[in-house]
Description:
Layout: H1 18-66, E1 68-76, E2 81-88, H2 91-94, E3 106-108, E4 114-116, E5 131-137, E6 148-153, E7 156-164
Parallel strand pairs: 1-7
Antiparallel strand pairs: 1-2, 2-5, 3-4, 3-6, 6-7
Amino acid sequence: MSDLTVNDAKEVKTKPLWPWLITAVIVLIGIGTAGYWGWQQYQLRLAAEHKAELQAEAIAQIEDQWGVRFMHVALVAEGGLLDVRYQVTDPDKAVYMFDEVENIPRVIAGNGIELAMNDDPHTHDLEFGLSYFFLLRNVDDSVKPGDQVTIAVGDLELPYFAVEQ
């Protein structure tokens, strides 16, 4: 009699599924992260465009009503003073900017503190195309380099004005 052995147990070798699952999860996380980053960049760009539109509109309104264009705001005297510079585009309108206390230009810091000149600033003849400046005390170090402040003249406001060093 011959020995005949039959192997009834058939072993089926299957590859483990976990490497594929880990790879799929990593790919999905990468796609989700890239999508979220792209969405954030899109939102930041929209916000910047909105700020630019608001600022351009405010610049035009102030120039139309008051005859001046604000050029820059900078910290001077080791951060103790704000140097606000503006250019006169219409001397007949600009002269009224210092006429009444409510119209005197002021800077509103990001924390809400309003920095303003005294109630009776000295004035002089303003000439077309010339640049002028005034200094404001930086109360409680309200304004830091790189901050965005609002310049207000009368009832008009120029938002998102960057402070230089």
